[in-house]
C-alpha cells in the first residue's frame, strides 16, 4: 500500500508549521494551568474558611442571645407565677394600702412578660430554644384576665371587669387552648375547662347572655370529652358546675319578658345615669357587705341570685372620665353562708374602714330566726347564719328538720385563686368566683366571698375570688383569701346576750331565768348595735325581717333598715328559688312589677314605655320624700348618696305596687322600714295615677285594685288618645282624598 501516503505527507509546509504552533500553545497553556491552580485553590479555601468561621461565630452569638432571651422569659414567667400565687396571702379585709402595692407590682411583671413574649415569640416557639406552646401563651393571657378580675373584686370598678373580658375573649377567639385535647393530658384539659368557667362568670357579671349560652354549650362538649377520655374522679363535680350555671341562667331569663322577635327585653342592671344634686350634708356609701344565706336559693359558684342582683345594683356602668370627676363604687364583700363569727369579722373590718361622712351597708338575704318564748331585748328575732354543731333543741327545734347543720359545698367555679389557696371574692364587690373548679370540700361554716377579692369558696384551701375586685374559681378571685372553718362556739348559759353587745349586762340577763337563751348561730339586732356608731344602712330580706324593726339608735348616727315582707301570697311563693321579690324590686322595679303581674311577653316598644313610666315614678317619689318635712333626717341624709337614694325610692315604689295589687292584702305582705316613711307617700294620688298608666301600658289592669280617680283619669287619657288618633286618621284620609 505504498501508493497510500500518510496525511501529513500530503500537507504543505505551511500547514505543518501551523500545527506545531498549536501544539506548542497547548503545552504552554497546560503548564501554566498546572502552575497556577494550587495558589487559587488556597485563596478560595481561605475565603471559605473565613466565611465559615464568621458563620459559626454568628451562630454562636445568636445561640447565646437566644439563650439569654429564654432565660429572661423564664425569669419573668416564674416571677409572675410567684406573685400571682401570693395574691391568696393578701388579707381579705383592710385598707387598699395593704394590697394595692402588691397588685401594682404583679401587674407590672405581667405587662413585661406579655410584651416580651409578643416581641420574641418566634424565638421562644422554636423547639431548639424553648418550644413555647400555644396553650402556654393562653395561660399567661388567662392569668392577666384573672388579675383584672381580682382587681375588679377589690375595687368594684367595672372598668377592670371589662378588661378581664377583653383578655378572655381574645383567648377564646384565637383558640389558644384549641389543641389541648391532642396531648391527652388531663391537667391541661382542666385548665381549659376552668378558663371556660371563669369566662362564663365574667360574661354573667357583664350581662352578656348570648356569650354565656354559647360558652355553656362549648363547656358541655369539653366536659363530655374530658369524662370520656380520662374517666376522672371529679366528673360529677364538673357535671354539677354545668348544672348550676345552666339553672342560674335559666332562672334569670324567666323574669325577663320576651318581645315579639323572641328575644329578652333590654334591662339596665347598673346605675347608668347621674342624679341631680340633693340638699343636705353629703353622705357616701363606702362599704357594703352582701350576705346570701338562703338554703334553697339557686346559685352559681358561691353567688346566689339575690347577691348577683344586689352586686350590680351597687355599681355604675363604666364611664371613661378623668379621675377627678369619677364617683367610685362602694367597696363590697360577698359572703355566701358565713358563720356568725365570720360575718362579725367582716362587719368589724368594714366598720373600721368606713371613714367620716361615709356609710356602711349590710344586706342580708337569709332564712329568719324567731322564738316562741320571751327573749332579752334585741334578741327576739334575727336571721340565721351557717353553723357547725347541731342546734340546741331548746332554741332551734322548729328549724332543725328543714336546715341541715353541716354544709357541703363545691369549690366555686369562679374562685380560681392563684396557686390553689383561697381567694376572696363577682363579686361584686364581689367575691370569689371560680378558682378551684371541681374540688369538693366539706365546709362547716360556709364560704366567704370577699368583694375585695373574688367569689368566695368554701372549705379550707378553696380557690375563690367576686367583689370590689378579684377573681376566683369560675371567674377569678381578686384577693385570694377566703375565710373558712371558723365557728361560733357556744357562750355559757346566761352570758349569750351581752356577748353580742346589745341587750343588757351579763348579770342582768342571768337573773332573768324565765327568759330563754337565743341561738348563738343567729344574727340579732343587738349584735349590730356596736356598729351603729357610724352611719349604717340595713337591708333585711328574710321571713323574719321585722325582728330588726326595733333596733335602737343609741349613738344618734344615721341609721335605717329596709325590711322585706315576711309573707307572700301563694301566687309568688313558688318563685322564691329564683330570687326574692323584694330584692328584685330594689334591683329593677319593672321586673318586680312584671313578676307580680305575670308578664311574660311584652314588645320592645311597650317595654320602653314602661321603663320611661317607672323612671318618672322614681323621680317623683324622690322629690316627694325630699320635700316632705316629716321624713326622718336620717332618711334624707342617706338619700344624698346615689345608690342609697335609689334603694329608698325603689323600696317605696315596691310598697305602692304591692299595696294596690289584688293578691297582696295582709300587712305582713308589705315591706316595712325603720324609721317609718310617711303613709302619705304610699297613697299619693300622683304616684297612684302613674301606676295606673303603667298597668294600662302593660295591659295588666285586672291584677290591681286602683282607686276610682286613678282609673278615671286613665280612662280619660286613653279615650283622649284614641280620639286624637281617630281624628288624625280622618284628617289623613281627607287629605288623601283631596290629593
Automatic annotation (TrEMBL):
<feature type="region of interest" description="Disordered">
    <location>
        <begin position="483"/>
        <end position="503"/>
    </location>
</feature>
<dbReference type="Pfam" id="PF12070">
    <property type="entry name" value="SCAI"/>
</dbReference>
<protein>
    <recommendedName>
        <fullName>Protein SCAI</fullName>
    </recommendedName>
</protein>
<dbReference type="InterPro" id="IPR022709">
    <property type="entry name" value="SCAI"/>
</dbReference>
<dbReference type="GO" id="GO:0003714">
    <property type="term" value="F:transcription corepressor activity"/>
</dbReference>
<dbReference type="GO" id="GO:0006351">
    <property type="term" value="P:DNA-templated transcription"/>
</dbReference>
<feature type="compositionally biased region" description="Low complexity">
    <location>
        <begin position="483"/>
        <end position="499"/>
    </location>
</feature>
<feature type="region of interest" description="Disordered">
    <location>
        <begin position="720"/>
        <end position="739"/>
    </location>
</feature>
